[in-house]
Amino acid sequence: MTIPQPGIFAIGTKAHHHLQFALRGEPGDLLERIGAIRDGNGTVAGANIVVGFSPTLTERLWPGQVPTGLTDFEPIVGDGGYTMPAAQHDLWIWLHGASEDAMLVVARQAVETLAGVADLVAEEQPFVYRTSLDLTGFEDGTENPPIDEAIGAAVVPDGEPGAYGSVALLQRWEHDLAGFEALSPRDQELVFGRTLADNAELDDLDDHPSAHIARVVIEDDDGDELEVFRRSAPFGGVRVNGLMFLAFSADRARLQTMLERMAGVDGIRDRITDFSTPTDSAWYYVPPIDLLH
């Protein structure tokens, strides 16, 4: 069945769990174990399950299936030496559903099922904050397309390598909330390019090219926006906190351009990077259902 993994588009879930693994055994054994973790539609015990593979592992499993231009994540160096570091792993499993306890149960089962084949090397448990806000208080995912248009933004088109799968970008960002909260409300709005009260785009956005929204809205040659489908969520506690940025795209290019603009490769760095720092970045290919069977 050549359809995208449905968990990409299952919105409204409150509890999330990200697991990243390093391969120990043979790729074929890995697929067999993944089949034991998920059922036919990718849900287990109330958890939506999305599975992604590094570009290198994807090529080993399904030669020729890697989407155009997709490689393992390489550090991005921008203005003044600012760097987005890489932390590319082999396998990523994203669990999300209604409750944290259910996600933890499924996460533990997944780790146990993969024992001896893949080792857990990174884990985060994001959550929904208030009305899907970032911990800064600003709305997250404002530029998301409506769900009926999300497939076009997130799924590789028919006829291209990796068709019906998706390119996923996973980044862990640590916030400096104290620094951000020390700003005046107006200066906070200038960081994001939106008002805090009603999430409206600033009228004078053209005068603030380093505002976040000015950096991450990508257009094609005809001036049409190239959309991605974001599924980010905050993580952490009092001392360490931030955002697990997750986006799905029909290609790597638009997300790569977005990251380069945020890092200031063109000389203008995203103002948000003064208050949030990426610690890990990875690309994953999220194959269609039939490749997981």
The number of distinct helices, counting runs of at least 4 residues, comes to 9
**Strand arrangement across the biggest beta sheet:** 2-3-6-1-7
CATH topology: Alpha-Beta Plaits
- How would a crystallographer describe the biggest sheet? 5 strands, antiparallel
Describe the model.
- With 293 residues, the chain is of the alpha+beta class.
- It has one domain (6-292): Alpha-Beta Plaits.
- It is 26% helix and 25% strand.
- It has helices spanning 27-37, 55-61, 100-114, 147-154, 177-181, 185-192, 212-216, 252-263, 289-292; strands spanning 15-23, 43-44, 47-53, 76-77, 83-84, 91-97, 118-124, 166-175, 229-230, 233-236, 241-249, 276-286.
- The strands form 3 sheets. Strands 2-3-6-1-7 form a 5-stranded antiparallel sheet. Strands 8, 9, 10, 11 and 12 form a 5-stranded antiparallel sheet that branches.
- Strand 10 (233-236) and strand 11 form a beta hairpin.
- Helix 1 runs antiparallel to helix 3 (100-114).
- It starts with 14 loop residues before the first strand and ends with a helix.
